[in-house]
Model the fold of this input.
Amino acid sequence: MTDAVYTDIPFSAYDDFSRRSKEVKAKKTKVKKDKKVTILKVFVIVIGFLLLAELFVMTVIVPGFTTVHIQFTGVRKIPMEKLEAKVNEFGGSTWIQFDTAKAVSVVGSMPEVERVTVDKHFPDRVTIDIKEREAVAKTILYSEGHPVTVQIDQNGVLFTSETVSVVRDTSIPLISGLPIDNIQEGMRLPSVYRTLMEHVAEIRRLPQKYFAAISEIQVVPKEFGNYELIVYPIHTHVRVLVDNTLNEDALKYMMVVLDVVNSIEPDVYEIDLRYGSVSYRKQ
Done:
């Protein structure tokens, strides 16, 4: 029978090996964590640098050194080239250099512009909102011996336009006889005639196109700054004399009288509706 042999191995050596193994693992884990933290720090630093660079570009480079982008709104008839040329008159090619007060002054000085507002939008955009003058009447004046069609808004401001639509628009009445010697863009009619323009504007807003039946309205100045009107209807040789009150009722009354007189007196060339009575003259 063989006796069993027992070797007495000290447990302290095993414990020491286990402890060292754990320390090695802990160091490796710590190294990995340190690498991750370092990478994360580098990433944060890079992102922060890029954000600072972008902030610098957006707040300094773009507004101060790049060309400003100008957008016009509300424009229907004014040529865009004309507006751009006006804006370029005072410079301001960058957003920082662009002067909104000058833009309002320069663009607002254009006779065909009634109102203008300018807004700057950081970092490189400017919007110019324009309300164009609306022609309620037109007249023909002479410039250097040539006839020029001039538009008139309801405030009595005279302005020209490069479009021919106003000339052809029969809803915009032709008014002659206004006491204007020469063309000065942006000038106003004398105050006594502004009431006439307001009346014309009110009639044009009506659903009925009364002025489409009228070829011309002639102003006849009177003493003390007053005036009367001569209306020339289309498709008839008769002219109608009226006072300075032009409204829907007056036009309706005029049309009725024209029909009646033409039916009973074909040789009439003038009807007088002034002073609250009806009279006519025959050829």
Summary: The longest strand covers residues 113-121. Residues 11-65 form the longest helix (55 residues).
